[in-house]
Amino acid sequence: MRLDSIMVYLLLGSNLGKREEILNAAIHKIGERIGLVTKKSSFYETAAWGNEDQPSFINVALEVETFLSPLEVLDKALYIEEELGRIRQGRWTARLIDIDIVLYGDEVVDEQERLQIPHPEMQFRKFVLEPLAEIAPDGFHPKLKQTISTLLSNLNDNLAVIKVV
Question: Which of 59, 61, 96, 128 has an alpha carbon 20 to 30 Å from 148's alpha carbon atom?
């Protein structure tokens, strides 16, 4: 546990079940277990990325003030996913809930297979950058040395990301 707080940015997604209800339940649990949710983006509907033969996702970005370390945030997020019924079946598969750590302040974390922050593919994914730019346009990618809004404006991802709520 940290002595001072830090802002962590999370991206949540769901493409199974009652997506909005599951996301709202996850947001509530994040507020209870990870930290104070200080900003929440709109919900965005997005076609599945990677494996397109599955239902579309609803995504939402959160800014959370936390005292937890990056690995503690990861462990709590994984536990919340499990509590909400996520079963891991491989990469790019349909899921009830997915919680990704996108940024943790301006820190770079490389725990090999366990955790990489900034999220190693965030700069290529419109479904990450669009909701994140809504709540943190001046958020900074510490490796690429660019703001979220700059990354979004330079993005070549044509995937439709539609604000729904």
Answer: 96
Residue of 53, 91, 98, 157 with catalytic role: 98
Q: CATH classification of 6-163, choosing from 3.40.1260.10, 3.30.70.560, 3.40.190.10, 3.50.30.10?
A: 3.30.70.560
Active-site pick, 86, 106, 114, 125 = 86
Q: What is the pLDDT of residues 114-146, one digit of tens each?
A: 899 999 999 999 999 999 999 999 999 999 999
What is the C-alpha separation between 118 and 106, in angstroms, rounded?
9
Q: Decide if 33 is catalytic.
A: no
Question: Poorest-confidence range of 34-38, 48-52, 140-144?
Answer: 48-52
pTM, full prediction: 0.92
19 in catalytic set: no
Q: Is 86 a catalytic residue?
A: yes
